Records
---
Amino acid sequence: MVSRVEHPAAGYRKIFESVEELTEPIPAKITGVVPSWLGGSLLRMGPGLFEVGDEPFHHMFDGLALVHKFDLKNGQVTYYRKFIRSDSYVRAMTENRVVITEFGTAAYPDPCKNIFSRFFTYFRGAEVTDNCLVNIYPIGEDFYAVTETNYITKVDPDSLETLKKVDLCKYLSVNGLTAHPHTDTDGTIYNIGNCFGKNMSLAYNIVKIPPAHKDPIEKSQVVVQLPSSERLKPSYIHSFGMTDNYFVFVEQPVKINLLKFLTLWNIRGATYMDCFESNDSMGTLFHLTTKDPAGYLSSHKFRTSAFNLFHHINAYEDEGYVIVDLCTWKGHDFVYNYLYLANLKGEWEEVKRAALRAPQPEVRRYVLPLDIHREDQGKNLVSLSYTTATAVLHSDGTIWLEPEVLFSGPRQAFEFPQINYSQYRGKKYSFAYGLGLTHFIPDRIVKLNVQTKETWVWQEEECYPSEPLFVPTPGATEEDDGVLLSVVVKPGAERPSFLLILDAMKLTELARADVNTIIPVTLHGTYKP
């Protein structure tokens, strides 16, 4: 899997440049053959505007949200995109400046106001952003663009029109939810977010949105609460795990300092990034809760060395264990510190130097024993034949976990993971698909056999792909019988972007649909059949 491709021309800069939305869908030029059964829409979210007027956004997660759509029908493909009409977008366009503070970019008061108005604006507190650029997914029959705050945005999946802004705080006791929910077989959606617990302490709530209801969000509820290891410093959460019977929450050492958040948020120039800090002594904690009935397993205290975590790959149960596969970054240094646009848009040698200071990525498997007996103290509790992961019971009742490494390469990340979700979420599985990053630059698509550690790679010179989404072949009996869909940018080509369709079994190209426009970086998305 290790990439030998260098990028001295720095073409990757193009995926971090602003674009305009389209007035109508544009046709794609097809090379190869699109599978006849593949009919639907690929919806993707990401930043599309990296500056407003003469004010630049600074972080990869700051740019104003752009929703993309590739429509596939009868072997033909069209492409369309529109900006989400969030308050962040509308007010920025109206005032021609950054009005609402984003992840790594601070908003400043209007310079046209008099000094007294500006003074009170400084100390009024920043508004929470509704810039939903991270993901888009269905809730019931509707589609919502999301970020990680309490705001989500209802979007028409056909016209891409912005329909409604929804404040989750009206329905749930959460400060926000992740952009990576889980969907159960009956259509129930689960998610997690931090909240205020008893005595103003922080906790984590797992929430449930029921299926098949006219307004499912209004019927959402908290199903279980987990404690925070630090009273006023919740861990950053980007995703979580779900098996048939358990939820898995990994409490990482990257923390949100609540006091800093409440004080800095009222001072000119502060951003979300200013409120993060790393706990270099806590390591990483794993929490388990039962699913139905929901209950926190307080007696199961799992601990391991420090790592950053953004994406779970999969979790499943086997012979009395919960197996958890993760895309990790070693250590407690926050990876997002290295995703400022100044780093990502530098010359290639500068990009490499910056990445060398960042945590090392690694795909890991952890095994959590469910059946624990005190007489097993000091022993490895894992007896599964197919993994080298261990779990050792200590005298204080904690269980120290050591992982099996499924993939590790120097500055080579396997990230934005996908699986055959509809058939293998929460099940024992073999294949994961991911975006390969070289020094944080996306330059390949990777298939990983999590049982044998074999890898397959799609890569093309000066091409920058996105997260590969797996779509199963109708009636398929094999886990990897399907296609992968990825949006690829090839700067300098006559048609500089294309939808890539790969055979998921062999990772060979079936077709590509070229469009005559640059498509900026996309983060996550969904396929709508």
---
Amino acid sequence: MGASSSTEQPVSAEQRELENIAASTGALPLLQKSFSNLSDPQTNAISIQALQQCFHLCYEDPVCESQQKPESFPRLLDHLGSSIVDLFFLSEKGGINWLGFLGGYVKCCGRMSTSMSLNILLRIFAMAVKKLGLSSNLEFEPDAADCKINGSLVPSDLLLLLWMCWAMLWNVRTLKSSERKGNLLLPDINHLVLSAVVACAEVDSSFDLWNCDIVGLDVQLPVGKFLNWAITTAPTLSDCLTQYVNRRLQISVLAEDEAGSSESISGDMSPNASQALLLTRGRAWAISLAPRSTITEEILKLCFSADIVGTDENLLYRSSTHGKGLNRFWSNVEGYHGPLLVLISANSEDAYQDNNKARKWIIGALTQQGFENKDTFYGSSGNLYAISPIFHVFSPSGKEKNYVYSHLYPTGRVYESHPKPVGIAFGGTTTNERIFIDEDFAKLTVRHHAMDKTYQPGSLIPNQGFLPVEASIAEVEVWGLGGKTAKEVQDSYKKREELFTEQRRKVDLKTFATWDDSPEKMMIDMMGDPNRVQREDR
């Protein structure tokens, strides 16, 4: 095995270098244990078939939330494990020795740039497609040290690639043994595919984002432009490969009853569980693909929970359930001190087609802290999102810090010659907010990015012009992403406020003492004889 070979034989410089690289990722102990478990004691090597079986993805027939499902996808997953082994793990006559095992892991999961890891992901995808017997427009330079790629993708290829990444994450976070099969739920990710199509292909203004057939869309996405899009919009997409390889190696080492970690979520995911919510699994996953942050883990828990609707501790406010309006909103989010994700579904007043059906769109905002009742902007960081029908991320620009605005009517009404707007806003300036929700949660105003220096420029809604867009709000959701601690702090705050309110409602009659000391008797006595001299207690 790897540990014994290092002690019984002289260690070569190549092996020492590979072991140091693997140790820098924290995976060297896992690699040593898995090699010992998978290798043949006689040859001290792993057979190709054993390693392919180790990386094989087990699943039952996929269930898709979207109606657009390529029939070739299940067979593509069957070639995932063999593609990883054939590309990176070099085999000698007796199998894959310790040096080949180390080198293969470092090639696919070692420390590298985002562009390099995306290249590796594309190589695995292209190999699986080739094994499936389908054609691919991707071309790789075999001897290039930086794995240069030429060619292009079509939208159906991108859908398969993204689903392959989702399937690897699903396997990491739901299954507890190498033999168990679970229901693989494929989320609706058309908004992600359309984001890449608009960014990489040449589409005109008449392109219909709402009624687009992703599988049948015949446009070319140059691989260079796709990589630029992925680095900007989904930089953590390739993390799924490292997590998948590590998880499969862990399962090969641990016994079945010990393979699941405390963070793994077991149970089958219902295909219709999240469809009623604005935050579906596909939209949550798209948000989680942004640069790593403290909310990534909380978002992924929502993606792979058995019942996303049942996660009441995360869904703080929903207008259709708790009622519309700023007061209802405030009563549900007050006291929550943690990251919050706000999603707004609306339709423009003039966005109607010939069939008189409104085209709804969804935008969102992420704050790194709870809401405060202020008449000025505040906040430390955040993001804006165009979520549906197309996905975009607008990170902070660093020029201004007008992240959040949330203002209620003051408790003591006083005259103000220039009253501050009452509502919730993100970006822009006072009275020129980039996103503004009125106090009744009835109207949403979206302004051009020229009014905003806090977030990156770009259109939040399709075909957005320079003039402000006023839309009717259909639904508002607020998700708490601060974990259990933030929710417990809010619960204790609400209990304390309820206690204070109950105490203020109660009247202690003992404080009024007797009739002789009451204000009413004093008034009656004064009316009867106002000139009567009364003794004043000093």
---
Amino acid sequence: MPRFTVHVRNEWLTVPCKDATCSIKWLGFEALKRYIKNKPDNGGIQHIKDVHFGVKRCQGFGLLDNDDTIEDVLEDNDFVELGNITNMVYMFSVCREIDYISLDGNSLTSTDLVNLGKGLFKIKLTPEAEQKVVQSRELLDTIVKENKVVYGITTGFGKFAQTVIPVSKLKELQENLLRSHSSGLGSPLSPERTRMLLALRINVLAKGHSGISLETLHSMIQAFNASCLSYVPEKGTVGASGDLAPLSHLALGLMGEGKMWSPKSGWADAKYVLEAHGLKPISLKPKEGLALINGTQMITSLGAEAVERAEAIAQQADIIAALTLEVLKGTTKAFDSESHRFCDRVQDAYTMRCCPQVHGIVNDTIEFVKKIINTEINSATDNPMVFAERGETISGGNFHGEYPAKALDYLAIGVHELASISERRIERLCNPSLSELPAFLVNEGGLNSGFMIAHCTAAALVSENKVLCHPSSIDSLSTSAATEDHVSMGGWAARKALRVVEHVEQVLAIELLAACQGIEFLRPLRTTTPLEKVYDLVRATVKPWIKDRFMAPDIEAVHRLLVDQKVWNIAGPYIEKYCMEYIPESRPSSPTAFALDPPPSPRKRVRLE
């Protein structure tokens, strides 16, 4: 069955086509239907039948006639774009001024890197970084001129380190390195993650310890700023000597080989994509191929996204747990230093009473991992390292990914606990013997099943996480004829950490839906102001559950609220206000306090600072 990728607003939508005799107009409407699905305001479209739009090919920008048949003007897997759409809040091709982040190899943060991945900024080098790059390259050029034998510059790689390469073949040596090492498999990284990977590699090269030429580095920056992104398969790295396979794929596209993607062209031959943006393929100088691929940037860029999303969901998990506590009529006395002094209920289940302790260690874990990731982001990870000020190169082991690999395994184990305890709270919400609410949070039980299987979904995700939390970094397999005889397996650590975080977000989305549904049965009672605002936010996206309906879109919509941090944006200011009023020594920007009304008292291991 032919498939087409359609660009609508900032989203790429895959539209299958069973009948190629359908019109281009049909393809456009099918894309619009997918675009507005699950959007609380229908994406700004009032009546889809009244919408007018134009369709053009991404490659070549040829405008298509809406009455043409698909088989006459498109090929399978073509990319097209919808534009000039009327009756929409957002108009297409809106140009805006994009700010720059200046890279120096020392000050980039995980937050910056994620924002670069989203396309919120372009990049440039600081003058100091440019000077260091030039000085580093001058030393390498001297080494080549003097015919010195230095690993990776005038020799082969790995097991072939003892093989000296003639000067006349040094360019071919670097090109062969990229071609042979581009052996990854699996799905390609998304454009956002490829942007992060490219930006991070540029940042490391900007430190001036790699020997890259300023000309080549500028070419990489131009490709980033134009969103010319190489096809990078997600699998193939063992995390030492660096992320060789994915970084080779990244560099191969810059060399004009393999595939590339850009918003203008879609997927096409790399040479064509570069030409379409007025860019030239890079021409490698001695050591530059090695400089492009020796490093932990695949592990670290994915790890940066994982830790940023983990931090966001951990903040919101406190708010969701507070809402569940209200629905289950739990006591806040467990969070007071004089617990249960005037309370009829002796104690709640651990899933409510011990939230500060369980959530607290997750916050501490995230803080620990984030520190390591931010250090790795600004670390030189090449081999050999070039020290221009000392006039020497040193072969070391900074390319080994053990630091981020271990940290990301730890992150997965830590953040998983948010889903583990959340799933148990969902059980309490759905179980009438524990909640004093209708079974599975729905009227006419039996005719309606309510949240019965939503809870099963949460349980399935938690169980899957238990397997994903097995540390990948405890494994090592010798590679490169026993030259690289200990590796980190950090690529898998990063990818599975991201999967764990996503599962945590989804489980908490189900809990938030269930807690809001529980509130429906407690009206006209009202909860605290911030929690009522969270309820209103959810209800602006998902209607109350009156009778059974298709539930997956509801879960996906609330998951998007959490990913976009909208729950935190609503309730966060109240939490910060409580912290300032009741815990004056607290830091205004620190993670959340658990109870929202009344505010909790400080006690050991509760995240209040």
---
Amino acid sequence: MAVFRFSVFVLIHIALFSTLCFAEDPTVTYDFKVSYKTASPLGVPQQVIAVNGDFPGPVINSTTNYNVVVNVHNELDENLLMTWPGIQLRRNSWQDGVLGTNCPIPPKWNWTYQFQVKDQIGSFFYSPSLNLQRASGGFGAFIVNNRSTVPLPFAHPDGDIFIMIGDWYTQNHTALKTTLDSGKDLGMPDGVLINGKGPYRYNNTLVPDGINHETINVDPGKTYRVRVHNVGTSTSLNFRIQNHNLLLAETEGHYTMQQNYTSFDIHVGQSYSFLVTMDQNATSDYYIVASARFVNESIWQRVTGVAVLHYSNSKGPVTGPLPEAPSDIYNQWAAMNQPRSIRQNASASGARPNPQGSFHYGNINVTDTYVLRSLPPSSIDGKLRATLNGISFVNPDTPIRLADKYNVKGAYKLDFPNKPLNRPLRMDRSILNATYKGFIEVILQNNDTKMQSFHMDGYSFFVVAMDFGIWTESSRNSYNKWDAISRSTVEVYPGGWTAILISLDNAGIWNMRVENLDRWHLGQETYMKIINPEENGETEMAHPDNVLYCGALQKMQKQQQPSAASSILPGITKMFLTFAIALSVGIFVL
């Protein structure tokens, strides 16, 4: 009898433990302490933002359909939100980490993000989303591995290499924010960092002595998956490895047709995977370079990051000039051929065993068209602001979905125009009202003078065309309706346009923005509201138990206890925790 009772207790405990671990799919849990740290990546001591003391932060390593729990401790002296560009957060925009969906985490508080990487694979990153904080750090890589049952479309690499590149200022984000808020441009960055470190001293004039550089150690003959993320402020960068080909394999969750490149343009907010084979004779080390692109490169020469690729049998340090950057700065039509060449590997399996190309997007009728036009920053009510369709977005005091739930009037407007209107520029809280299960065409028209990266949370989209000039309906004749790459962040050339197609199958409130931090901060963003009118609880998750309240709902927010159980395991009631513990004790009593 005692044995039977023991078995019952064990089975019940296991069942409850499975519930605590979010049912059938495994869970990975991270504890992030986000704090300031003094570092000198370009030789000048400055305040950076570290995660668990590291700059960049640790890698989030997950697998398709895993549940991800990230408990974020805000040890800054300012509000904080963490966001996960490219992670689709299916049915769960409550975890998006932007002001339209989340109240910020106050200083000295913690908040736990909990979401599933449902039906996803690929290379992504995480970062802070408020007040240009990403310009001071707080970022790290986020990878979603294939399940063991879904094969890679290439031989299994001998290792993963993570490379975070980005332009960098020796002023911290607070100073940069002050510059923008005073109506000034940020100007030329002070350099480029590779994995949080400054350039190798390839030039004694341009690079001062005493700067720590990154060294990537490899073995001859091996092939590595090199995941590169541009987490910078506003500069497009050209990435290259001296004497090595970059075999493009994946971008932001979708496998590509494999093509070799000697260098590759990576724009702000974009992520790529390359297969790189160590096939050189290692007479010396080799340069890894990330240099400013689509600028006057003779003036911007200092905006160059340099790391070292070191073979285990290398015969000496690398010397001599850097490998040359592309020479098409004055021929951007030629430069555009590179992103146009990126094609989806339609026969490869992605997160599921079925081929990526099984979704025949080119045969679906478009339900709505939106033309989103950006202009150079202009003065609105005496402030320098950036706009989409003439509207500079003002973040609501109460997050949009919370305002819906608690019937807060006037929190936002559903009147964002679907095309540019001939009217004065203005600041507003206008968002797009989209149709759930619709299939929309979005034209990104960049009438600004700078390269821009456009991103949409909660989705990937098909990049079907890009060109210079003004988009017209006849431009549809150039659309790729067969193997366009699907991704979440796309470049839009100055004086040009990019066309994307989006299947609106993920209910929620989703941020649409430029990833260039200066323009984002100045208001070049909006949100898309995608709600199922026949909501039955299955198309969108309810708000989490640990939701934070602010704005019109501030009075509902309770002061956080330092060890509140709900902040560690949101959605799990204390009753179940107590019951599980009691059952565990029961096992030993019996």
